[in-house]
Amino acid sequence: MRTRRLGRSPIYVSDICMGTMTFGAQADEKMSLRILDHSFEAGINFYDTAENYPVPPDPKWAGQTEEILGKWLRTKDRDAVILATKVCGPSHGWLKASQRAGMTALDRHNIVRALEGSLKRLGTDYVDLYQTHWPDHGTAYDETMETLDDLVRAGKIRVLGCSNETSWGLMKSLEASRRLGKARYETIQNNFSLNNRRFEDELAQVCRQENVSLIPYSPLAGGVLSGKYLGGATPEGARFSRYLGMGGRQAAQVKRFVNERSLTATERFQAIAQEAGMSVVTLATAWSKQHRFVASTIVGATHEDQLPEIFAARDLVLDDAVCAAIDEVSKEILYPMG
Description:
This protein is an alpha/beta fold. The chain has a domain at 3-189: TIM Barrel (Alpha-Beta Barrel), CATH 3.20.20.100. 39% of the residues lie in helices and 12% in strands. The protein has twelve helices and ten strands. It has an eight-stranded parallel beta sheet. A two-stranded antiparallel ribbon has the order 1-2. Helix 4 packs across helix 5. The chain is globular, with a radius of gyration of 19 Å. The protein starts with a strand and ends in a 6-residue tail after the last helix.
C-alpha cells in the first residue's frame, strides 16, 4: 500500500486509514476486532478514533471505541501502528459531547484531561496524531496550541491535527503556532467526498500553500454513495435509517446526506463506476485518495464483508476519462449536500 507524509512531519501513513466511529455501537467488539485485523493484514498502518466515539454521542457508551482499539493494539507491535485520536471541541456549539458531563472545550484543562483519558483507554503512553475534533473559536488559539505543544514536548503526542475546521480557523492556528514558536497542526480531518467537494473551494488551497495534509472522512458520503438509500430505501441497521427517528441534529444530518440531489448524483456515479468495471465504493475511495493535498482517506465499516470493495482501491489510480466524467456530474449537480 502506498504511504504519504502527514504535513511536514516525519510520519508516513498508508493512504487508506481505518476509521472506528461505529465500533461499540453498529459494530460490536468481536466484529470490530475482525475489521481491525483484516485492515492490518491488508497493509493499513493508520487508525483513527476519538474520545467521543462511538457515534452518535451517548454517555452510556462514551469511550468504548478507544477501549476496543486499545485491546486490539495490545496484540500488535506498537511501533507498527500509527494511532490517531481526538479531543472534543466545545459542547456549547453545534454538538454536545458525551465526555466530561458535556462541558468540553479546547482549553488547557479539557485537553489535558481528554488526553489522559484516551491514553488510559487505548493502553498506550503516546498517540501519533492528536486532533481537535471540532473547533473552539471562542477559546484563544494561543492557549490551545500552547497546551498541545506542552504535550508534544512531554512525549505524549507526536503530531498535531485539527478536524471540522474552517479556512479562517486553520490559518489562525498556524499563525499562532508560528508567532509562539509552538508545534502546529500538520493535518486537517474534514468531510470530503464525491457528494461533498466543498473542501476544494478554499481549504484545499490552504493545505497546498501551508503544507497541511487533509485526512478526509466519509468518502462514501455517510454510506450514501454505496447506493443503499436509492429508491427511498431505509435498510435496517444503516446509520441514516436509525437517525431518521432520533430527531434533532441526527435527523438534520439525514436531510443533508440523503436528498434528491445526492441520490441523483449517486446514481450517476454508479453508472461511471460500472462503465469503468468497478464498484462505486471502490471508485469513491480511489477518487478521494487521488488528490495532492490528501495524505490518507479514512474509511469505515460495520462488517468485514464491506472491506473487499474498499481494499480494491489500494493501488488503483483513476484514469483521465473517469475523472472527467466525475467532474461533469459535479458541475451539473453542484453541492448535492448543500
